[in-house]
Amino acid sequence: MDTQAGPPREMLASGRLRWLFVAAILTGSFLLFLVQPMIARMALPRIGGAPAVWNSAMLVYQALLLAGYAYAHWLGRFRLRVQALVHVGVLAVAALQLPIGLIATELPGSIDPALWVPWLLCASIGPLFFAISAQAPLLQRWYAAASGGRDPYALYAASNIGSFGGLIAYPLLVEPGLALHGQSWLWTAGYALVAVLVAGCGLLLPTNSGDAVPELAHSVRPTPGRVAWWIALALVPSGLMLATTTFLTTDIVAVPLLWVLPLGLYLLSFSLAFREGSALPDLLAKFVPVMLLLFGATLIAGHQQFAYLNAAIGLLLLFMVSVALHARMYALRPAPDRLTGFYLAMAFGGALGGVFSALVAPLVFDWTYEYPLLILAAGLLVPQSFLFPALERFWRGSRAAQRGRTVLMIVVVVGLVALGFWNPGRLFGSFSEQMAFVAVAAVGLVAVGRRAPFMVALAGALFIFGGQRAIDMSLSGARIRSYFGVYTVTDQDGERRLAHGTTVHGLQLLGARERMPTTYYVPGSGVGQAMEALPSLYGPRARVGVVGLGTGTLACYARPGQQWRFFEIDPAVVRIARERFTFLARCLPDPTVLLGDARLQIDHMPAASLDLLALDAFSSDAVPMHLMTAEAFASYGRVLAPNGLLLVHISNRFLALTPVVAAAAERGGWHAARMIYQPSALEKQDEASTSDWIALSHDPAKLAALTGTGHGWRPLVARRGFAGWTDDYASIVPVLRGTGGGASDDD
Fold first, then answer.
1. Cα separations (Å) of 20 from 25, 29, 615?
2. Model confidence pTM above 0.90
């Protein structure tokens, strides 16, 4: 007998009111993933834009999601209407933090950013994120109760579609169209809408039932092993999503906005996997192991000439693995009365994956080893079936026969790896790595469907095709990893290079020419001309500031009597400059190095305390947007003498930054000129690089004294219609090279 009071179940089951639950879940998820890039953008002036910053933010979001799911699970012990009242109350209390924004605090120089950044984000959006994150499992439980026990898991697809929409909407629509202040109020309005929708869902709940779905109230409690499976199946895609983000932006290509794609594909995988009657598990059981074997190893080989292809392969691999593991998780889902516990386990696994990739890996590894490790973990978990009937027949037989074939396959793989590693008698010629990989992959394809030999083949492929070189470089001490990235120092052909990800950040000629400036900083470059002109421009006691230490190359322009100071956010870079390169030791043995974010350091300096400031603070090809806003240029103008010079390095493979600087110059009353330095063939032999520098000054006579010599300088022209960047508004979309925003190589 139905003793429940409230709206007729037939009304909801017919779909006339189901839209309310869908709308509430979709809108809440949209806001969750709209706030993630939004709050990261708000935090840029304080924490910078390194890939690790985004990973720290993702870790915070996963931890808050876990807390929200735990709260939803705990709330399930109460009557449905009590749940609704409590949750609406939580939404109301969290609303006291509106409008959304960062708390007023600064990055302490003495605290590790890996700890401080999560604290800042939690304190700024924690209650709001917690309140909204709980409603996906909570509203699904309510829907199951109000609909008479209909399967609520399909609503999770709406949740992830909303999440994907919020994630994509921010860089493409919200950030280009609204300043941060407007974004904050847009999110506030969305929060109010969510609260109204949740309250409306609460009114649909039965009033006299203590249990959501009576007919399923006594479903079997999941075993600890089943819960562990849920956690593992959630951990690997989550960790792989962050590892893919770090790996692509560090070792493949540092394209701006690239971090959106791994997260977006990760979210879409839920929408495809959480579907009743889907044929995906059987389909992916054939193809995902093959993808792991062939392309997991290909990626870590890190061939830069195929950077974009490798990035596409990495994203496809992440998507297929995520769909396969999430589909397996959906197949193992419990009855609706255990729904919140299922989502709690899933959130816990996701948070563990985030902890591994965002916190543990940067501390333990000197390279992105988390990526191949998670590829191996995916190989352990992904469903497998034989590729062809003939292979299935090959593996048939008694257990002893199967074990014999397994041992044989393992021995063959180990032997092939050894041959490829040592290449005795040049058995594989000059292509030992490639030939050994092809042979190991062929054996692995035969082994698909048998976990043990497949895993050995996968590990062998990863080792022989990239892993071996990574391990060798780690053992040689050439790599250093910090919160801000992976740095590699290599010696070759009489020179020493520093690379941050895929970008060379300094090069020193060894031997007699070790004091010679190279790459972007040669005497003929914009900054080189400015440094050599310092005595004539400002006398023998010129005061110089450099944002971004790198290898310390610019120190070799220093002369006795001058005062130099460097601004560097990463202590690892300071150690590299002091211990691995000799620019500082030979040219400026005891420099002043101010650790911390350069903009904050400059804000604390006295006015008119520098004559020349060189801005060269790019990590890989990422751009610290907070150093390029109108407010930042106002800080530079304050710290410079009235006739001081500002040199801005804008060489970048992906962004045309000239309009950004031109707009800031126009707004701040700067006079500006630009120089694109093209070295001659002879200069390239001394490792001179093409570079793009802009010189600015509030004193036109001082700027003319530098640029009026005719050495490649030309007036800086602003782009019509481009407003520039401010702390409240900045979008990289209009300045992406090759986009419809109009950016070109001439900008």
1. 9, 14, 52
2. no
